[in-house]
Amino acid sequence: MGAGIALAFALGGSAATMVARRQSTLDAAWRRIEASADLLARAGRVPAGGREDLLGRITGTTDLDGTDLGVDLVVETVAEDVTVKRQLYQLIEPRLGPSTVLSTCTSSLPLAGLAAGLGRPGQFIGYHWFNPPELIGLVEIVPAAQTAAQVTDRVEAFSLAIGKQPVRVAADVPGFIANRLQYALIREAYHLVSAGVCTPADVDSVITAGLGPRWAVIGPFMSMDLAGLDVHRAVAEQLFPRLSGDTAVPPMLTALTDAGALGAKAGRGLLGNYDEQQVRSLVELRARVLLTLDGMRQPPSAGSR
Question: What is the mean predicted confidence (pLDDT) over 31-43?
Answer without folding.
Answer: 92
